[in-house]
Amino acid sequence: MKRVYLDHSATTPLRVESREAMMPLFGDIYGNPSSVHGFGQEAKKHLEDARELVAKCLNAARPEEIIFTGCGTEADNLAIKGIAFANREKGNHIITSQIEHHAVLNTCEYLAKNGFEVTYLPVNEGGRVRWEDVAAAIKPTTILITIMHANNEVGTIQPIEEIGTIAAAENKRRAALGSAVWLYVHTDAVQTAGKIPLDVRAMGVDLLSISGHKFYGPKGVGALYVKKGARIQPILHGGHHERNLRAGTENVAGIAGLAKALELAIMDMDHEQKRLGVLRDQLEAGIIQQVPSLKVNGDTAHRMASVTNISFAFIEGEGILLSLDLAGIAASTGSACASGSLEPSHVLKAMGVETTLAQGALRFSLGHQNTAEDIAYVLETVPPIIDRLRSMSPLYQKTVKS
Amino acid sequence: MKILVAMSGGVDSSTAAFLLKEQGHEVVGATLRLWHSADDKYRPGGCCSLDDIYDARRVCDFLGIKHYVLNRETEFRRDVVDAFVSEYLSGATPNPCIVCNEKIKFRMMLSDALALGFDTLATGHYARIERKDDCYQLVVGKDPAKDQSYVLYRLGQSELSHLLFPLGNYTKKEIRAMALQAQLPAAQKPESQEICFVETDYAAFLKSYLPDYDARVRPGPIVDPSGKIVGRHRGLALYTVGQRSGLGLTTPEPVYVIRIDVETNTLCIGPKAQVHAASGSVKYVVWIAGSPPSFPLRCTVKIRRLHQPAPATLTREHDNQVLVAFDVSQPAVTPGQSAVFYAGDIVIGGGIIV
Questions:
Q1: CA-CA distances (angstroms) from residue B264 to A43, A225, A246, A265?
Q2: CA 20 to 30 Å from B290, out of A5, A89, A344, B334?
């Protein structure tokens, strides 16, 4: 059976160059990078080469601003809890949005249970946070704004640069007033790294999370950009690794793989994102043309090139997902981390998509190995599946009759 | 055939999937996710816990087949759990597995299977489906000790025509041996007979589930056949017709719950003889063939899972309700339980005891 993978927002296949970059570190180079001896130094060289490369990719001012973690979720946790706990005597207010990934939402919820005040900003019907709302939510006690760079379910890109500007103005204002409370900006860029140019200085962020396996690197490794001078404390305690911010022997192989993958994704970016945009548009247009009663979710003017999220009325996304899987096509009903729950997506809910449409949502996310042939196969497979599911849906029968 | 197998993670459904795969069918496993307790604490057993979903997945991995989890928590809560609670509050003793089979497993899961493009849904029940002329018959399983036809009596022709019970022609012992032989991961897993959403006992469940438990389950009088108050009960929902222990009474002769009167919040007790009933009405009656037989009808009637079917005559009371007159009176004809009608080995129908 033909197999088509259209779930690149969940994870991506490892690219060969990333694997090659890791192989020596699974072999002869096995020293502990913290060790003093030659074995350790060899490993340390790979670690620091990777750090420099990632710093360059993100346009960080210095390599030490890159902290390697075990995954994107850990990077988010370190950023949010690390800033919150280190600055709690200065302020306890955090601003985030209703459409964040659970790595951010649940971390904020945890902080809310531990003495912090959290504002969850709404989004417009296109799934974008309004920068005006961010500005209006800032209080003297606000210490952190954490808004994702692009949403993982619908692909909408958030106005991070505007938010960076707002925070910079607020910090300037506070300094003029003699306040010592710094307002930090964190962005979860797990979905955008390697797909949209990231420049931490142009974006005006203090912290930025990425995850290796979303851009054809290995799983089990992430990184957090922490601007020099940021007041932050670790969430894992132990040895003096990663500028005392992340204890634990570094996953040197994974880190080398992440750096290589990020470098190559950025080199390919222009060409690849253009190519994926064309395929995505063909897929979307083809489905719209063949299937009635559907809705494309998310502001298409501010959207990642590789993602489309479509709600099919009258049926459940889960049924479409399983039917597609049986036909060899891998898609998703939303976040892989929320699988198994039939709760309508919190993202679509925040966008005001009505519950029945939210339950019929399906995400296709494209990547490297996808071809025009793949899209043609999906376009010939999807419509009959939707027809069959609708023909058995009581909701559809009722609507058609009335 | 393309077959979806309902997998519980136990030895029966695992062996069913194994058998169908061996027969060369295109097999996919699916487990219903129906319930998780509010506090998500570790809870062994039951037929739909997260542990069981894990076990089912591991069996499918072993068999090299796909496995899906179908979430029906909302429907399960609405159609099975809430109904279970309201039955208890109305003084009856419900059998939620029968409702789950009718409304969730063999309605929703079967329609899910057909919608996904499968021809058939298979389960690990010990019962047989036989086709006679144009009619599908539900027949008891080969293993009399394990027969599960009782909990399947609400299936109709449209369900039976798309169902497969691969274990119907085997005994439990044979299935267990087959599972061991095939080294199925579930081969040694113990049986679970409990109600999947009830952790310890149903009384504790009602207490934790009902926000207004204290208002709904109130203590009241226990009266003997002469009408004399002989004690206090803890709330009618905690008692079942035929129950002997747990009444908190000291009497010269053993006494039993003979009736539950919700209107007066009274528990009526009496001697063993009064627990027996010669007849009872049965409501919400369904017929496997799809239409009622001609009355009066001679058959045998089974009034709970472990009851030996007893000879009886059925007469029509009104639509979907029949009167069962036993040849010999039977102990504990319990409201809320199902009465299932058999013609020899064949299930002809059944309903809920009034």
A1: 81, 71, 67, 76
A2: B334
* A399 — pLDDT class (breaks 50, 70, 90): confident
- Segment A317-335 shows an average pLDDT of 92
- Residue in chain B lying closest to A322 (CA): B116
A256 and A278 housed in the same domain? no
Domain boundary among A236, A264, A292: A264
Q: Which domain holds residue A187?
A: 16-264
CB contact under 8 A, A388 and B117: yes
Q: Say yes or no: A167 and A89 in one domain.
A: yes
| Whether residues A326 and A178 fall in one domain | no
Judged by DSSP in three states, B145 sits in coil
Residue B280's pLDDT band, with cuts at 50, 70 and 90, is very high
Per the structure, the count of domains in chain A is 2
- The side-by-side arrangement of strands in the sheet containing B266-270 is B229-233, B220-223, B266-270, B256-261
Q: Which residue has the higher pLDDT, B105 or A394?
A: B105
CATH of the domain at A20: 3.40.640.10
The catalytic site residues of A sit at 337
Cβ-contact B283, B351 below 8 angstroms: yes
Decide if B161 touches A, using CB distance below 8 A: no
The β-bridge partners of B272 are none
- The CATH number assigned to the domain holding A391 equals 3.90.1150.10
Kindly determine whether residue B71 and residue A389, on different chains, have CB atoms separated by under 8 Å. no
Q: Would an 8 Å CB–CB cutoff place B33 in contact with chain A?
A: yes
∠B206-B210-B214 over CA atoms, to 5°?
90
CA distances from A209 to A48, A103, B176 (A): 18, 11, 51
What's the pTM? Answer: 0.88
Q: Please give the ipTM for the structure prediction.
A: 0.83
Cβ-defined contact of A319 to B115 (cutoff 8 Å): yes
* Chain Cα centroid distance, residue B180: 28
Residues of chain A found within 8 Å of residue B33, distances taken between Cβ atoms:
340
Closest-CA distance, B10 to chain A, in angstroms, reads 20
The residues of A whose Cβ lies within 8 A of any Cβ of B are 318-319, 322-323, 325-326, 340-342, 388-389, 392-393
Q: Are the Cβ atoms of B115 and A318 closer than 8 angstroms?
A: no
Assess contact for B257 and B274: CB atoms under 8 A: no
Report pLDDT digits (tens) over B157-205: 999 999 999 999 999 999 999 999 999 998 888 877 678 888 778 888 8
Q: Which of A238, A264, A290 is the last residue of a domain?
A: A264
Which residues 95-134 of B have a C-beta within 8 angstroms of A?
A: 111-112, 114-117
Q: Do A174 and A279 share a domain, yes or no? A: no
Determine whether B196 is an active site residue: yes
pLDDT grade, residue A339 (50/70/90)?
Answer: low
A87 with A110, same domain? yes
Put simply, whether B66 touches A (Cβ < 8 Å) is yes
Query: Is A119 in the same domain as A87?
Result: yes
Residues A125 and A201 in one domain: yes
Are residues A188 and A255 located together in one domain of the fold?
Answer: yes
